[in-house]
Design brief:
10% helix, binds zinc ion, 175 residues, mainly beta, 9 strands, single chain, 2 helices, nine-stranded antiparallel beta sheet
């Protein structure tokens, strides 16, 4: 049985195990509000992201997310949303595992992570940043990015300006 066939509760329990590896404490009711996002593709093992949001206001946002081994968050960007808001800027700080992050810029010749084979046409950014526990990186607004965990999965803190998922633009036409 693949993760894509698990119930939300089962996925949340697995995500909690990863949070524990990173010494992140969540209360029982918080575990139940862990969000499981398969981006509507129904292939959670390959493409998805699991997250717990501490706070998201019109001023700032803090969350932690888990990627299962080799799971990929698909390519997207956070565009300007108004005259006074140039778009979401996000800082990732890895707490556990390795994250292969790709942003617009000089492409790496031999990427350490590859998108799922059937989705390869929908990934265009290949400037590689490899983050392990204790490393952080800030992605400017309006910049395409995607990321994948290494073999052990990954837990990452994300500090950002307001998260307005409705505005996000994905490269993949099915998302
Ligand atoms: Zn993003």
């Amino acid at each position: 049985m693949t993760i894509a066939q698990w119930s939300t509760r089962e996925v949340q329990r697995k995500v909690h195990e990863y949070f524990q590896k990173a010494d992140i404490l969540l209360k029982d009711e918080e575990i139940q509000s862990i969000e499981v996002n398969d981006y509507g593709l129904g292939r959670l093992d390959e493409i998805g992201l699991q997250l717990f949001v501490y706070i998201n206001t019109d001023r700032y946002c803090a969350k932690e997310w888990v990627l299962f081994p080799r799971q990929t968050c698909p390519e997207h960007l956070h565009p300007p949303v108004s005259e006074n808001d140039s778009g979401k800027q996000e800082t990732f700080r890895v707490k556990y595992g390795t994250v292969y992050l790709y942003v617009e810029g000089d492409p790496v010749e031999d990427p350490a992570a590859l998108p799922p084979e059937k989705d390869q046409d929908h990934f265009t950014a290949f400037h590689e940043i490899i983050l392990t526990a204790g490393d952080q990186y800030t992605i400017p607004p309006n910049t395409k990015h995607w990321f994948q965990a290494g073999e052990t999965g990954a837990v990452t803190a994300e500090y950002s300006s307001t998260s307005t998922d409705d505005h996000d633009i994905f490269t993949h036409p099915d998302i």
